[in-house]
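Shipment paperwork, digital attachment
Item: protein structure file
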Amino acid sequence: MTDPIIAKRLVFHVGGYDPMPPQAVRRRFVRELQRFAGTWSASIASVSEAEVGADEAAWRIVTSGPNWRVETDYRHVRWDDIIEAARRRPTWRRVPLALLAFIDFVAAGALFGYFRTNWRYALFFLSPFLVFAVLAGLAALAGAGIAHASGSAVLGALAALAALALLLRWPGQRLQLDLMFDDWVFARDYVRGRDAVLEPRLDRVARQITEAARRRDADEILIVGHSLGAVLAVDLLDRALALDPALGRTGAPLALLSVGSSIPKIGLHRGARRFRAALERVAKAPGLFWGEYQALTDVMNFYKTNPVECLGMSAAGGPIVRVVRISLMLDPVAYRRIRRNFYRVHCQFISANDRRADYDYFMLLCGPVPAERQVRSPNGAQAAIGPDGTLLEEPSEEPTRTCRSRVGHG
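Attachment content:
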């Protein structure tokens, strides 16, 4: 094979707005890794226990096939503690902050940008606020009924507030309304200011990236951002590039993978000047390879949207955009079971596949084929791995030589 074979890989994964603690993340990772092994006829020699720190949770994986072996140093960049702190916010504070975030994103042109680039995402943005409006309407009707029956407007108002509080607890919590509100509150805070916990954490992880690249302990370094985590991954890489502008050109090869990402969620807000400047610097970094994976059935990503071009930046920079089909990754029965669960579909970008497909999160992290080759190839790693898991000497299909701004279909 003409491409180098990966034997050691360092991965920094930045997840989306999910309060899942590190040990739960590792349990999911181990479970999905077993599934990956069955799909690709790979064997798993070991998965270490998690080493949990304030900034990240880390574990090491060894995967192998008949003629390959990969050691992966996996580092899950933490911000679950920040999300969990927001979840402890009382409802009487959460609701006004969420409504303020809604007004802010509408007034700053983000909602119009969502409709212009991807109407599905615009509806996703509106959905928690529409649900809240329905619940508030039901509470108002209940209050009006009490006021009419009692002849007291004050009693009616109190009854309406009590009814709204109950509705926000159920069915509101079942619909994860609190988590979706917190998500948008965080997004507004991220646009408008700096987080006292997150900012120094990203700085520390950025230093780890630059130091690891200089040491060349790994054959490649991957920065993976899922969902809103893709925004933080861009921010993280911008900090690393500020420390070492030659990052990726010297030292270990470096790649950014944004999967199911919501980069335009922040970038389309007129106030996100700091983030857009960071995005442009990352997009133009000559030593960085960037692959962006999107899917139609995932309403939480921007389908068929180049996250750099849609913000009015030059098409000369930015990612190779690959559109993939989640239905082809899963057993048909399994896909029918999850296809109406938007969150589960969104999480397929960080889950294992039942079938070999052009996108496979675990093949990118734990397989022997370099990430850039997997992104550029129309079939991902499929042409490079035989039915028995053997790494083929000659791929059965040449990878595409796609320009960096093109949207490709998997």
